[in-house]
């Protein structure tokens, strides 16, 4: 029996009550040859009991974006829901993309997306918010998730020695083997922290990190107004609705992930599944896990054998000041030779394609940084060739830039899906050079910065 999921959530930091799912219908679950459980869900197939005043439909534009980006993220090695197929409906759908009073008709489409579960933080929050009559549903949903998606938690026993000091003043201990729900929230916190660290590594900005868009599996879910960084800008948000406060901008994502874990922890506490010390420990683990993962990722991106805060912080500051392309910079950095005797006028040659229009003062800042970088990588026993190979394996050559997406959408709306297929093939191997495809790694053209290409609204 097909069904739509009921969930609520915090939107932009405020509890919004019941939200959906207003346009996603689960067809059912299948077990594959590996015994893995996969849920098949149609997005945009029509109204559900939770559609409220909406039509439950989706347009081709947003459907292509979800289809392309979920597959791109998978091939980048980032946990995500997947897109099984995309089809057009043959019917037009009316949408006001920018909420500016200018709606227009667009081609309708449906994505069949798959995941081992589409449960999100908001799936639990909605029932906790309704008080005593629904609190048992929170426990049942937690039991279901642990049984099917975290079965190792149920098999834990005290011999696993999963007891930890919380860091509180009273030096108390949290024993994860005595409460499966505490072990569960800690694992969700760690998975979420790992996910956000990986987003930061490739320059991905989700755009709408409401609690109803947070997967309990630590997957990227609900691709709306997402965007990959072009020029490095920590305050970048691809969501027009987020522009006033930039709550969900690139630099804020780690803190928002923690905030969302805090809300989920409160939900489990309200249902009396965990206590406050266990909730605090989950948040503590989020912070520790994020820093461990982020430092490891950034070290690998620079080809460093150990984390160097000064080198990395100064680099990101320089990139922000000069609006350096995030993806192309790290790819080119792999070409730098660890030769301390490199003449000053040749130090920046490997980066000339991304260090554009910098004056004398900024050039000196980059030369200073480059010398410190060469000194750092030169201190290891890794050869230039091996370092380049390692860096190329973690720094993608190709990402799904918004202008590439828009070009594919424009053609598809005219019935030509060749560019959608080109991008799917390209993004299957984002870390490889792929001769003949170099144009897809170019900096965005001027037209890419018009409204509707790099910025989208929440419901697009």
TrEMBL record:
Keyword Ribosomal protein set for record: no
Pfam families reported in the protein's UniProt record: SelO
Cofactor: Mg(2+)
Keyword hit for Nucleotide-binding: yes
One Gene Ontology molecular-function label: ATP binding
TM stretches of this protein: none
GO cellular component: chloroplast thylakoid
InterPro entries reported in the protein's UniProt record: SelO (IPR003846)
Keywords linked to the UniProt accession: ATP-binding, Magnesium, Metal-binding, Nucleotide-binding, Nucleotidyltransferase, Transferase
Listed PANTHER family: PROTEIN ADENYLYLTRANSFERASE SELO, MITOCHONDRIAL
Family: Belongs to the SELO family.
Protein name according to UniProt: Selenoprotein O
Organism: Arabidopsis suecica (Swedish thale-cress)
Lineage: Eukaryota, Viridiplantae, Streptophyta, Embryophyta, Tracheophyta
């Amino acid at each position: 029996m097909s069904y739509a999921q009921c969930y609520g959530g915090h939107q932009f930091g405020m509890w919004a009550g019941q939200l959906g799912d207003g346009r996603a219908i689960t067809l059912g679950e299948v077990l594959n040859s590996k015994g893995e459980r996969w849920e098949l869900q149609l997005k945009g197939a029509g109204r559900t009991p939770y559609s409220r005043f909406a039509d439950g439909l989706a347009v081709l534009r947003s459907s292509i974006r979800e289809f392309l980006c979920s597959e791109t993220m998978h091939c980048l090695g980032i946990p995500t829901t997947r897109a099984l197929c995309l089809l057009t409906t043959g019917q037009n759908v009316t949408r006001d993309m920018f909420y500016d009073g200018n709606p227009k008709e667009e081609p309708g489409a449906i994505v069949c997306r798959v995941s081992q579960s589409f449960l999100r933080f908001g799936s639990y929050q909605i029932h906790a918010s309704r008080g005593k009559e629904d609190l048992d549903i929170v426990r049942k949903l937690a039991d279901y998730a642990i049984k099917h998606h975290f079965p190792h938690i149920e098999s834990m026993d005290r011999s696993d020695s999963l007891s930890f000091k919380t860091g509180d003043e009273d030096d108390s201990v949290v024993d994860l083997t005595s409460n499966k729900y505490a072990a569960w929230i800690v694992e969700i916190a760690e998975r979420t922290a790992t996910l956000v660290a990986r987003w930061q590594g490739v320059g991905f900005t989700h755009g709408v990190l409401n609690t109803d868009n947070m997967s309990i599996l630590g997957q990227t879910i609900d691709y709306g107004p997402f965007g990959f960084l072009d020029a490095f800008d920590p305050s970048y948000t691809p969501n027009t609705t987020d522009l006033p406060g930039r709550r969900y901008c690139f630099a804020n994502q780690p803190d928002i992930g923690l905030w969302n874990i805090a809300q989920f922890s409160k939900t489990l506490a309200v249902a009396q599944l965990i206590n406050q010390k266990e909730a605090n420990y989950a948040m503590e683990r989020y912070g520790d896990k994020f820093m461990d993962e982020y430092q490891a990722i950034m070290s690998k991106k620079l080809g460093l054998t150990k984390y160097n805060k000064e080198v990395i912080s100064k680099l990101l500051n320089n990139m922000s000041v000069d609006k350096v392309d995030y993806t192309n910079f790290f790819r080119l950095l792999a070409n730098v030779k660890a030769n301390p005797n490199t003449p000053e006028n040749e130090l920046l040659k490997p980066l000339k394609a991304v260090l554009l229009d910098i004056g004398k003062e900024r050039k000196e800042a980059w030369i200073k940084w480059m010398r410190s970088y060469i000194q750092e990588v030169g201190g290891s026993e890794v050869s230039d060739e091996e370092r380049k190979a390692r860096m190329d394996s973690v720094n993608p050559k190709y990402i799904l830039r918004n202008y590439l997406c828009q070009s594919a959408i424009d053609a598809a709306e005219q019935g030509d899906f060749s560019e959608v297929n080109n991008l799917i093939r390209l993004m299957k191997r984002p870390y490889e050079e792929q001769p003949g495809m170099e144009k897809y790694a170019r900096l965005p053209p001027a037209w890419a910065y018009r409204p509707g290409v790099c910025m989208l609204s929440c419901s697009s």
